[in-house]
Every structure is written in C-alpha cells, then in structure tokens.
Amino acid sequence: MKKLFWSLLLFLLAALPAQAAEQIDFYRIDATIQSDASVSFIETIDYNFGAESRHGIFRTIPTTKTNADNKKFSLEITDISVEDPFTTSRTGDEISIKIGDANRTITGTHRYTIRYTVSGALTYFPDHDELYWNMFGTNWEVPIVRGAAHVTIPGTTVDIQTKCFTGASGATGEDCTTTHQSGVVSTTLTKSLGAYEGMSVVIGFPKDLVALVDPKEVVPFQMTTAGKIALLIFGILAFGWYIAAPLAVIWYWVKHGRDPKAPMGVVSAWFSPPKNSALRDLTPVETGTLVDESADMRDIYGTLIDLARRGYIKIVERSKDKFSFTKMKEWKGDGGLQPFEQELLTGLIGDKETVKFEDTELAVTAKKVSDQVYTSLVADGFFPKNPQNVRNLFYVIAALAFITMNLPLTIIAGIFGRHMPRKTLFGAQSAAIAASLKNFLGSQEKHLAFQAKNQMFFEKLLPYAVAFGVEDIWAKRFADIPMTPPDWYQTRGTTFNSVVFAKSIGKSYGSGFTAGASHQSSTGFRSGFSSGGGFSGGGGGGGGGGSW
Predict the structure, then answer these.
(1) How many CA atoms lie within 13 A of 126 on its CB side?
(2) Exposure b/e, 322-350, CB count within 10 A at least 16 = b
(3) Top mean-pLDDT range of 112-126, 207-221, 228-242
(4) Contact by Cβ (8 Å): 203, 131
(5) What are the DUF2207 domain coordinates in residue numbering (predicted)?
(6) How many Cα neighbours within 13 Å face the side chain of 210?
(7) Are 357 and 324 in contact (CB under 8 A)?
(8) What does the domain layout of the chain look like in residue ranges?
(9) How many other β-carbons are positioned within 10 Å of the β-carbon of residue 358?
(10) In whole angstroms, what is the distance from residue 295 CA to residue 423 CA?
C-alpha cells in the first residue's frame, strides 16, 4: 500500500505543468540617427517572468567600444528615461538601469520602455559612414523569443548597405533578415536567441548626411598628465637604483650591437642587388631588410611587384585607387620561389584566380613573411641571429623597466634595442651593396647612358626602388623615353608614362595595403562589412540584463 501511494504521488507530480522559465517574448528597438551624429534609442521589452515572483528587470549598457587595436573609445549615454520607477548606477565600463519596486513583486509578462541617447556610436570610413551596433546584447541572462530593430537614417533612401549577425559573442550566424525602405532599415530575427546570444546590425550609408564626430579615446591613467607626472616622480625616485642596467645596455651595444666595418663602403652607383653565398640575387624584401634590418610592408610590397614582373600574378587597376590581383601561373612547388615568396602568394590569393586588394587580409600574412625573411637571412649568413628576436629581447627589457618605473632603462633599452641587431662581415658587405643600389635608384644623375635605353632595366629594378621608397625618382629618369605598358600591370589609361605608372604603383600599396590589411576607420575601427570584421557582439552598445 505504501509503495502504491508513493508511485501515485510521483505520477501526479510528473503530470503537473512545468513552470515556464523567464524569457523575453518580444524585444523591439527603434533607433534614429540624428544629423548631429547622435543616435536616440527606444527599447520596448516584453519580459515574461513566468511564475517567478520578481521585482523587475535590470538593463546594462556599455559606455565604451573597442577598435581593432583594442583601444577603447567612450560612448556618451544621456537622456535615460523609463516609464517605470528606476535607478541608474555605473560600474566600470557600463551603466546599469534597475527598473522596478523593491516593495512589490510581479509575475507574468510586463512591458518595459527604455529611452536613451548615445553619442560616439557612428564610425566614419573613406567611402561611407556606418552604424555597427549590438541591438540585442550578448549578456542577456534569458532567451529572446522574437525581436526586431528599426533604424531611421536622415536624408536618404538610396545607397544603404545592411548586414546582421546573430549568436554568441564572436559568432557569424545570420538568423535575421534586413530590409530598408524610405530611409528606415528593419532587421528581424528569424530564429529565437538563447541566453547570452545577441543580434548585431551593420548599416552603411552615404557620407555627409551626419556630422563628423569621432568618439573620444579612453586614455589610460598612465597616459594622462597626472599619470605622466606620477611616472616621472617614481622614475626619479628609482633612478639611483637603476644605473647599472642602462649603462650595461649601452656597453653591450658598443661591444656586440655595431656592424663590422665592410671592406667596400657605400658608393654612389651600383646596378644590381646583393647576392647570397649561392650567388642568388636577393629579393627586394631581403635587400630592403639588409639596409634597415627590418622587413616592413614597403619591402614586402617591393617583392610583390617583383613577383608580378616575374609572371606569377598580374596587377589590375580597376578604378581610381582600386586594384586586383590575377593569378597568372601556378606557384606551388615552383623551385624558383623562396619560401617567403610562396607564403606571400598563398596569403594574398590562395586558391582563387582573382582577388580584390581591398578584400585581402594581409596583416597575418605579412607577419609570417617577415619571420621567414629573417630566418632566410640568418641561414644565408647575413645575420648571426634573427634581428627581430634581438629587438624583441630589448623591447621586453624596456617594458619590464617601464613597469618597474625605471625610465632610464626604458628609454635606453628602447632606443638602443632598435639598433642592436648585428650583421656578419658578409652581411655588412652586402648591406653596403644594397645601400649603393639605393643611392643609384634615388639619384637623378645620369650615371650611365644605357640605363634609359632598356625598359627591362627599368622594370627589373623597380621593385627594389619600391622597397627603398624611391620609385618616383627612379621613374623620372625614364619619363622622356617611349615605353610600352608591362604585361604584368593593367592600367586604365591608353598611354604609358613611367612617372604616371610609378604613381599608380605607389597608390596601390598606399591605399590597397591599408585597406587590405585592416579595413579600419581613422580611429582604428574595423568595418562590419569587411572580411572577418562582422560578428555578433562586434559593434558598439549591446550589454544585456535580467530580472531581480
């Protein structure tokens, strides 16, 4: 009988309807972009408490947004109002709005309407202005069953770009639809969001519709006047304890950081790049690195031009400051290419036949190429150690010195560390040859009569001129010579002039590398439309909330 009683009780408990968990039945946001660049928001939240007895909800809103370099910029949030009783508080980088009455509990569904204005929400790019906003933040503790966001843009109904992302922070799902009509962009969820999932919306619109008001950077204390004064005081107090280390860095540079004296000094005219021990001509990136001991973007771009000249790719000028790369022949397994050249081509084009420069992501590729160039130069005997590793060691010393307020060591390690890489005798001799080539390319003197008679001579040395930053000067020496357009560069013009061509080359890496490497605004923010730039939680705003 007792066993029957407990079985019946368990059956009745299982048959009872489960209490509904808390959720947001419907979340609506109405945003209006004002001509002064501020954005007003109205949030309407139908919050379902289920059978839980709660006092109300809280809503957290971030007061900063972070760019691609992890620098924080402030969002000024003003004019906060709620139709129910509420209080606000600020903790760290967010404002918390607490809505409800501590002396009253509620259940079921309640509607909350929150209004506020944000300054600093917009981002400005060369070809458009943009609102990249986390409409539903990824910090909500409850699911969002249905949701929609409507954004009004002033003064335009055309040239509007839209995109939306859903999911947890960093996700690139697109369980949402976006339409625009009569200057209003509407984005609607097509799938419910779970707890800690959100929806971000990217809206691009023509420039000059709103004022240009960039957000203000949040300056760390140590970078403020008060912070600098504090650092100076600590540095003065610690100076007596840190005399030996700064002097040791200088001594080390004198003994081990200076290049040996090359048998041949730098001359005014040299017509070919240095060679390695196997008598291979060094590439532009290797040659440029020998001169300043740094494999930078200009050196890498010089090698890219050289790869085009050698027939691996073709550079196509699509329109003003817009360029594409077209694959001309297979490079995988090509013994005529160095490993870093293979890496550069793979990172630039990969398995594609054509790629737009602005769609490339070259920052990671450039880092890999630079590392391989340093490794190659060490293996060929130009440096005894990787120059970047040597610099990094002293940069770490400088950073540690800064943390411990040792300003003398910070300054000395930073300055001398930059010049600490040392070449071998063979490297110093080769660097003198490279510097001599740079002198020749950067001079307007007519050293040789034959140099202006051979277009192949112009094209062969152009990549090195690009690496040295003297391509304009090099091109002027051929300005009056009839030349045909090279088959590796497709220009929009009908006639060919060496100076115009060099300027186009300069624009391609001046604009293309900047766009391709980062897709960033003047304040360092990545566009939500760029490759790898858009994801849920990647814009400004957002935050979340829950009940209390």
Answers:
(1) 9
(2) bbbbbbbeebeeeeebbebbbbbbebbbe
(3) 112-126
(4) yes
(5) 24-205
(6) 29
(7) yes
(8) 23-216+529-547, 276-384+444-518
(9) 19
(10) 15
34 pLDDT band, cuts 50/70/90, is very high
Radius of gyration (C-alpha) of the chain in whole angstroms: 31
Q: Which residue type occupies 199?
A: M
Q: Which residue has the tokens 């090279």?
A: 486
Q: What pTM was computed for the model?
A: 0.49
Residue 166 phi/psi, 5-degree rounding, is -135, 160
Strands 129-136 and 122-124 come out as: antiparallel
C-alpha torsion sign, points 84, 87, 92, 93: positive
Q: What φ, ψ does residue 111 adopt, rounded to 5°? A: -100, 135
Q: Residue type at 470? A: V
Q: Which residue has the tokens 């060496």?
A: 498
pLDDT recorded at residue 132: 93
Distances (CA, A) of 33 to 120, 121, 150, 296, 360: 11, 9, 11, 41, 31
Residue 377: Cβ within 10 Å count: 25
Contact present, 227 and 221 (Cβ < 8 Å): yes
Which token pair is 337?
A: 């290419």
Alpha-carbon distance of 186 to 29, in angstroms, equals: 10
Strands 354-356 and 322-327 turn out to be antiparallel
d(CA 47, CA 57): 8
Q: Which amino acid is at 520?
A: Q
505: left (phi over 0), alpha (psi -120 to 50) or beta: alpha
Distance separating alpha carbons of residues 200 and 162, to the nearest angstrom: 11
Task: Give per-residue pLDDT as tens, 50-67.
Answer: 988 999 999 999 998 888
Any idea of the CA torsion for 375, 377, 383, 385, to the nearest 10 degrees? 0
42, 115 in Cβ contact below 8 A?
Answer: yes
Question: Is 433 exposed, middle or buried (CB count within 10 Å of its CB: 0-12, 13-18, 19+)?
Answer: buried
Nearest Cα to Cα of residue 68 among 522, 542, 536: 522
CA nearest to 198, candidates 134, 256, 260, 152: 134
Neighbouring CB atoms inside 10 A of 530's CB total 19
What's the Cα-to-Cα distance from 364 to each of 305, 360, 376, 525, rounded to whole Å? 19, 11, 19, 17
CA gap 151, 160 in Å, rounded? 12
Q: What is the fold, at CATH topology level, of the domain defined by 23-216+529-547? A: Immunoglobulin-like (2.60.40)
Mark 231-264 as b/e (b = at least 16 C-beta within 10 Å).
beeebeebeeebeeebeebeeebeeebebeebee
With contact defined as beta carbons under 8 Å apart, do 391 and 383 qualify? no
Give all strands (DSSP E) within 403-496, no chain letters. Answer: 489-490
Side-by-side strand order, sheet with 144-152 = 76-82, 109-119, 39-48, 23-33, 144-152, 184-189, 176-181
pLDDT grade for 527, boundaries at 50, 70 and 90: low
Q: Which of 87, 80, 82, 85 is nearest to 104 (CA)?
A: 85
